[in-house]
Amino acid sequence: MNHHKKPEQVMQVLGELKDTARPMMISFDEMVTLMTQCKQLEEGRLMRRNKEVGKNGAELTIERSTASKSPFTLLNGIVPGTKWCGTGDIAKNYFDLGTDSAVDSCCRAHDLCPVKVMANSKKYDLVNNSLFTKSHCRCDDELFQCLKKSLPSPSANLMGQIYFNIVQVPCLMDTDKGLQFRSARKNF
């Protein structure tokens, strides 16, 4: 069965969808919940795939710690073994993850945080003159927990150390006065 569609077929299907599948506004909490659910679905899929190929947890840990250690990814600001962890990303699409897919999915979720102020920009009446994007504190907290859960992965440890202990990027916190910057979480 051929699942590949021609560009004109794709455009036709998308054109038909626009009449039935209207975008709808959702809250920040709903968006974060959806992102978490998508990550859980993907984790289940990865576990089933690894089970099918007969790899246990120890084998996967060894494979992750030795694969994709190209110094070029680190020079590009990307943590080795990942495509989403670092300054920007090198992923081709949402589903393109590095060899350390558990850690990479943590960074992908953080990169897609719906509430953030990009580097050297202004949003929500906040000015970010930093070299780094500042995300909502809930997204930073989720990244922290996700990376901790991925230990002893060297990629998780490196990303956690850099983001939370060295760079210490402040985050956006909800207050009575609206969003405000909060000091970074520490002690990864």
From TrEMBL:
Enzyme class: hydrolase
Top-level taxonomic group: Eukaryota
The keyword Metal-binding is assigned to this record: yes
UniProt domain Phospholipase A2-like central: residue ranges: 78-173
EC number: 3.1.1.4
Cofactor(s) essential for the protein: Ca(2+)
Protein name: Phospholipase A2
Protein species of origin: Diabrotica balteata (Banded cucumber beetle)
Taxonomic classification: Eukaryota, Metazoa, Ecdysozoa, Arthropoda, Hexapoda
